[in-house]
From TrEMBL:
It comes from Chlamydomonas schloesseri. This is Uncharacterized protein. Residues 118-132, 139-153 have a biased composition (Gly residues). Residues 207-224 have a biased composition (Low complexity). Gene3D superfamilies: Vaccinia Virus protein VP39. Residues 116-170, 192-224 are annotated as: Disordered. PANTHER family: HEPATOCELLULAR CARCINOMA-ASSOCIATED ANTIGEN, RIBOSOMAL LYSINE N-METHYLTRANSFERASE 5. Coiled coil: none annotated.
């Protein structure tokens, strides 16, 4: 996989005389400050690597599952109507809270349902956690790690090609197992109950470097006691962004259970009608102003979407996503690369990323993704932390924490470029004034 964006090559301007000395001194002072900051970030990363190694040892991810048979809530083993026509009901808090999600066989069909103001199927749908399940009609598991459903590899590949050609957002209008697992994990465990450790204190910014967050974007995080409040939102509860939300199950679960201070739920424009439909259908469960729907395309082409995110803008305390890895990486299907670009773009130093990744569709690509992500994030694979009823071999839950040295280095590159550009602009303006006066 190639990098989404190449780091710019900087060419220092060539000031003259006293101005040259002043610019050189200023740049040298900034470089010294940046070196101190980068060293502190590298030390934090070393400590974080040790913490993650200890956590990883406690998760028992290498242990065999005692039972590989499908759970009654698993969507993958249900029939067509339960997966693409009937509503899916997420039963949270032991069934005391029910989030009802409309489904459809494709985004184009979902748009028609949304226009009518009705769900894809209506009453009765299959439940996902906490209550009686619908029967897993017509789909069995082919042994440990096997895939359900019929058809050979050639037939499945042909259908996948047709899906990509006719509806790129096909996979986003049904509830997948990863969404069920992640919704219960985030709302039934204490992972969002307290903020992460604070980052090392940063030196004062250099002149003309701008006010930048750890991801290189402009703006500033709210202040507050780091150990009591989440660093980005400055609140007792985290600000959350969901990527590739599809039907919106994870975001709606977070908002309905009051687990997050704000939830920004995003996906491609074709899927926004489904998200808005499901948000409306569950409005009685949602605190006013807590859920926000927005378009977000992954990769550099989505930069305008990033800039427009609101009313709660980046950075976010927590980024979540489920079943985001589907196609193998190729130049025609660069989804994995674009996802990584977006995570790097949106992650601030204290951001935590929680992903639930399906191992049904493309386990090899999941491993590729995690290997690539490890260059920019500390990767923790979770098992024992996942609620037992939703701990299955088919869904891998991971936590990503940014490697702060990488974030700091990228931000410093932006600051360095801005400083050099500002000094070059000052030099040109001065020369223009001197030429005019002469």
């Amino acid at each position: 996989m190639t990098a989404a964006i190449e780091e710019p090559t900087l060419r220092e301007p060539a000031p003259v005389g006293a101005d040259a000395d002043g610019a050189a001194i200023e740049l040298a002072a900034c470089e010294a400050t940046w070196a101190t900051e980068l060293s502190a970030a590298e030390a934090w990363d070393a400590d974080e690597a040790l913490r993650v190694a200890e956590e990883q040892a406690a998760e028992g991810v290498d242990e065999e599952f005692e039972d590989y048979s499908p759970k009654d809530w698993q969507r993958f083993y249900m029939g067509y109507h339960q997966r693409f026509v009937d509503d899916c009901v997420l039963e949270l808090r032991g069934g005391a809270l029910q989030v009802r999600l409309a489904q459809a066989p494709s985004a184009s069909v979902a748009v028609k349902h949304a226009a009518k103001g009705a769900g894809a199927g209506g009453g009765g749908g299959g439940r996902a956690g906490g209550g009686p399940s619908a029967a897993a009609a017509g789909q069995g598991r082919g042994g440990k790690g096997g895939k359900g459903g019929g058809g050979g590899k050639a037939q499945q590949q042909q259908q996948q090609d047709l899906d990509k050609a006719s509806d790129p957002a096909l996979t986003g209008t049904t509830v997948w197992d990863g969404a069920v697992v992640l919704a219960h994990f985030l709302t039934e465990t204490p992972v969002l109950a307290a903020p992460p450790p604070p980052p090392p204190p940063a030196p004062a910014p250099c002149p003309a470097a701008g006010d930048l967050n750890g991801d290189g974007s402009s703006g500033s995080a709210a202040a507050g006691p780091a150990r009591a409040l989440w660093p980005c939102s400055g609140a007792a509860l985290p600000s959350v962004l969901e990527l590739g939300a599809g039907t919106g199950g994870v975001s709606l679960a977070l908002a309905a259970t009051r687990t997050a201070a704000s939830v920004t739920v995003t996906d491609l424009p074709d899927l926004l009608p489904t998200l808005r439909l499901n948000a409306g259908r569950n409005a009685a469960l949602l605190p006013p102003g807590r859920l926000h729907v927005a378009p977000l395309k992954w990769g550099p082409e989505g930069e305008a979407d990033v800039q427009a995110l609101g009313p709660v803008p980046p950075p976010y305390d927590v980024i979540v996503g489920s079943d985001l890895i589907y196609y193998s990486y190729t130049p025609d299907t660069p989804h994995t690369e674009l996802l990584l670009w977006t995570l790097r773009r949106l992650a601030a130093p204290a951001t935590r990323v929680y992903l639930s990744l399906s191992l049904h569709h493309n386990p090899e690509e999941v491993e590729h993704f995690l290997g690539w992500a490890a260059k920019d994030f500390h990767v923790l694979r979770l098992r024992r932390s996942v609620p037992e009823d939703f701990r299955v071999a088919d869904s891998l839950v991971v936590r990503l924490t940014p490697r702060r040295a990488q974030l700091v280095a990228r931000r410093q590159q932006v600051e360095r470029e801005r400083l050099l550009q500002a000094r070059e602009q000052e030099r040109r303006e001065r020369e223009a004034r001197e030429a005019s006066a002469g």
